[in-house]
Structure formats: structure tokens, C-alpha cells
Design a protein that fits this description.
This protein starts with a helix and ends with a strand. By secondary structure, it is of the alpha/beta class. α3 crosses α4 and α7 packs parallel to α8. It is built from 13 helices and 15 strands. A 7-stranded mixed β-sheet has the order 3-2-1-4-13-14-15, covered by helices on one side. The protein has a 5-stranded parallel β-sheet with strand order 8-9-10-11-12. Strands 5-6-7 form a 3-stranded parallel β-sheet. The N terminus is likely disordered. Helices cover 36% and strands 21% of the residues. It folds into 2 domains: 94 residues, Urease, subunit C, domain 1, CATH 2.30.40.10; 267 residues, TIM Barrel (Alpha-Beta Barrel), CATH 3.20.20.140.
Length: 442
């Protein structure tokens, strides 16, 4: 009896210490709902219907647990429903960033340095913190299109959030980049006669490609990411050269789709963009120098386009201040000269665009992608759709998220002023709800 009492005392003491030490932000999110239903009645001064491109006034959103169950000028809220007064705010769906990197903050060093000096444990800790920053900004759903990590830290972050152990955005993950030897995800600045240093997922030839894709799915990948051309923030690889053969691209799509998963390609030059689109990739990142022929093919095949504008603005600014190498700056200037034209063609021919920031810059700037995109396209509703319902469609989750609609998840953000009036207003998010749980409320 005495021994049992001692064990119980130790357990209680340990639990009390753990509760005192647990940070508020890192505390477990609400688990799957059990017990009595929980209702919240949210009163919005204005509500943005991104599907119909309409601004509605004086609307109520009734949330039951994690789902929207009623919308309108009035709702049948139970007497014990929690009242949330956003009557002086503009409500909109949770925002989405379809091109997030959690391990590569280029203001802290080159890709080769960061990729080879940060452990997977470091990446997991940094990535969790940065993902939480994105959620506080209003991004309730993000996609990770590959990252520099030799293990699967981004999968572990996603899983921990899904288990409710930490608050964070809904995440869909391509764990790594599939890259050819010497390609955009290889480490090319190391001396050839020094220690052998290679990127995390360097694959050449159809057999290596099939095996790599199977490995990504074995450890929980949602998407596959391929470096279809050279890039900007890397050494010696050419953005205008297609990184793989037609057969290799075909096998990538075949293998990913056989597993009922999706595949995306990083590509700047038209050769890489066209090859990936022709092969049947689900989306293309950047496409800064694509031709009219390629834009038309993207529209015809329904390929999604994530143009990533702010990152080039940031790279050019960094270059002017001496913050990046001359080689990287020269490549940035090359792709920027044609990026505007590529975006205009895609918009003209009806290519479906999703919003992605490519946040290798300080994470708090990710929200600036909305304005960067709008400065090129000058269509506020289109850009807001790109960061909500169109992104949800690309993920195949538009029946669950992407708009404020009965039956969908209660992912809701609010700003004092409407981004439809001025796009920079979206940078002032002061209310965030993800799946019925309030993340931020000023």
C-alpha cells in the first residue's frame, strides 16, 4: 500500500511539473471531439464568398465542434453557444500557402550550407516554430513541396499536428526534392576532390526514380516534388535546361499516380515546364520563363500553376544589398525579366493558379505573396481565390476547406478591412480559427 502511494505521488508530481513547463503555444490542440457538442456563433460585419466573388454584410456563422453548420443573416444558435463578435471585421476562409519551406531560411546562409549543417532534429524544431508562425498569420493549410532534410522531419511535424500534440496548420507534404545529379537540389559548390556531399534525394534513370518515389510514400509523403530544371538559389545548374528525359518524366507521373498521389515540378525555363506539363504533372512551381505554347497546354490539361512572386522580389532586393552571390543574382535577374509575361499568359488562357510564397525568406513575409501576385495580375478576387478555394481544389480538398460553406471545416480568418478593396489589407489578420479552435483573437 505504501509503495502504491509513493508511485501515485510521483506520477502526480511529474504531471504537475509537465503542465507548468508546457508552453501555451506548444500545448496539445483539442483532440477529436468527445462529450457534448460545442457551438460557436460568429457575427461577421462582412463575409467574403470566394466561390461567388461576393461580399455579404452582417452575416453569422454557426460552428458545431469543427464544422460550419449554418450561415446567414441569422442562425439558430443554441442558448449556450459561445458568441464571437467580429461585427467590425471582414471574415474570409482560412488562407492557404501552397509553397512553404520550413528548413531553408536563406537569409541565414546558402542552400548548400544550410542543407549540410542543419540536423533533422534542428529542422523539426525550427519547422514546427515556423509552421506555427504561418498559422498565426492566417494560413490554416499549407503544402510543403519538398525541403532540404536527409530524413523526414516535415512528416513528423505534420503527424504531430494531426495527433493534436501541437497547434499548427493543416499540412500536406512532399518530403524531399527528386533531383538529377548536379540539379537544383544537389549541393554543387563543394570541391570534387573533397568529401562526397550529395543532396538528400539525387536520382537518375527510371529505376532510381521509381524506388525513390516508393520510399517517399513509404514514409508518409502526400506529394512528390521534382526539380525539373535548374534554379536560382543554387550553384552551376541552369534554369533553362530540362533536368530529366521525357521517359524519366513519364515514369515519375506514372508512379505517383499509380499510388493515387499527386506530383509537382519546380521549373523555370520553358523546356522543363513543357516537359513536366506534357508528362501529366499535377502542378508547376514558378514557370517563370514559359512560352505561350506551354501556357495553352497547361490550360488544356488543367495543370495548376504556383507562380511564387514575392520570393523573386526578395532575392533581387537581397542581391542589390550584397546579400546573395553574383551568380544567384544574375539568374534571378534572368528569370524576373520573363516572369511577368508568363503570369499574364497563364491568366489570359485560364490556367488555374494557386498561391505559394516559396518562403526561403523570413517567414513573416509569406503573407506578402498576396500583394505580390496582385501587383502582377490586378485582380483581387482572383488572387484571394488562389489563396483559398483554388488551392483547396488543387489539393483535392475543396469539399472540406477553401470557402465558408455549410459542411466545411470552420477555418476562418478576419481582418479589419477587406482585401477586395486593397490587397495589402490581408496582411492585417487579427482573428484565426482552424477547425473550430481559436488560434488568434485580438
Amino acid at each position: 500500500m505504501k509503495a502504491k502511494k509513493m508511485i501515485l505521488t510521483r506520477l502526480v508530481a511529474g504531471l504537475s511539473t509537465a503542465l507548468m513547463l508546457a508552453p501555451v503555444w506548444g500545448s496539445p490542440a483539442a483532440p477529436a471531439h468527445v462529450g457534448p457538442d460545442r457551438y460557436q456563433d460568429i457575427h461577421c460585419g462582412k463575409l467574403l464568398d470566394v466561390e461567388k466573388k461576393k461580399t455579404l454584410s452582417n452575416q453569422h456563422i454557426l460552428v458545431k465542434n469543427d464544422v460550419i453548420v449554418e450561415l446567414g443573416a441569422s442562425v439558430n444558435a443554441p442558448a449556450d453557444a459561445k458568441k464571437i463578435d467580429l461585427s467590425n471585421q471582414v471574415c474570409m476562409p482560412g488562407l492557404m500557402d501552397m509553397h512553404v519551406h520550413l528548413f531553408t531560411q536563406s537569409s541565414q546562409g546558402t542552400v548548400d550550407v544550410l542543407g549540410t549543417t542543419q540536423s533533422s532534429a534542428f529542422n523539426a524544431l525550427q519547422g514546427l516554430r515556423l509552421s506555427q508562425e504561418l498559422l498565426k498569420m492566417g494560413f490554416t493549410t499549407v503544402r510543403i513541396p519538398g525541403d532540404m532534410d536527409y530524413q523526414y522531419a516535415n512528416i513528423e511535424i505534420r503527424n504531430a499536428i494531426n495527433r493534436g500534440e501541437f497547434m499548427g496548420p493543416r499540412m500536406l507534404v512532399a518530403p524531399h526534392y527528386l533531383s538529377a545529379l548536379g540539379g537544383h537540389a544537389d549541393f554543387n559548390s563543394f570541391a570534387p576532390d573533397g568529401p562526397k556531399v550529395q543532396g538528400p534525394m539525387i536520382v537518375d534513370g527510371v529505376d532510381e526514380i521509381r524506388k525513390a518515389i516508393r520510399k517517399e510514400f513509404k514514409y508518409g509523403g502526400d506529394w512528390i516534388k521534382v526539380m525539373a530544371s535548374g534554379g536560382v538559389m543554387s550553384q552551376h545548374d541552369d534554369p533553362e535546361v530540362s533536368a530529366y528525359s521525357e521517359e524519366e518524366f513519364r515514369v515519375m507521373v506514372e508512379e505517383a499516380h499509380r499510388h493515387k498521389k499527386k506530383i509537382t515540378a519546380h521549373a523555370h525555363g520553358d523546356a522543363g515546364v513543357y516537359a513536366a506539363v506534357k508528362a501529366g504533372f499535377d502542378s508547376i512551381e514558378h514557370a517563370t520563363m514559359m512560352s505561350e505554347k506551354t501556357a495553352k497546354l497547361m490550360a488544356k490539361k488543367g495543370t495548376y500553376y504556383i507562380p511564387t512572386f514575392h520570393v523573386l522580389d526578395w532575392i533581387l532586393e537581397m542581391g542589390e544589398n550584397g546579400g546573395i552571390t553574383a551568380d544567384n543574382l544574375a539568374k534571378a535577374r534572368l528569370v524576373e525579366t520573363k516572369h511577368q509575361k508568363s503570369a499574364e499568359m497563364a491568366y489570359k488562357y485560364g490556367v488555374k493558379m494557386a498561391l505559394g510564397s516559396d518562403c526561403i525568406f523570413p517567414i513573416e513575409q509569406a503573407i506578402k505573396e498576396f500583394d505580390a501576385m496582385n501587383r502582377r495580375l490586378n485582380d483581387n478576387w482572383y488572387v484571394l481565390q488562389a489563396g483559398t478555394i483554388t488551392s483547396a481544389e488543387m489539393l483535392g480538398l475543396d469539399d472540406q476547406i477553401g470557402s465558408l460553406k455549410v459542411g466545411k471545416q470552420a477555418d476562418i480568418v478576419a481582418t479589419p478591412k477587406s482585401p477586395i478593396d486593397k490587397m495589402t489589407n490581408i496582411e492585417d489578420v487579427n482573428f484565426v480559427m482552424k477547425g473550430g479552435s481559436i488560434v488568434r483573437h485580438h
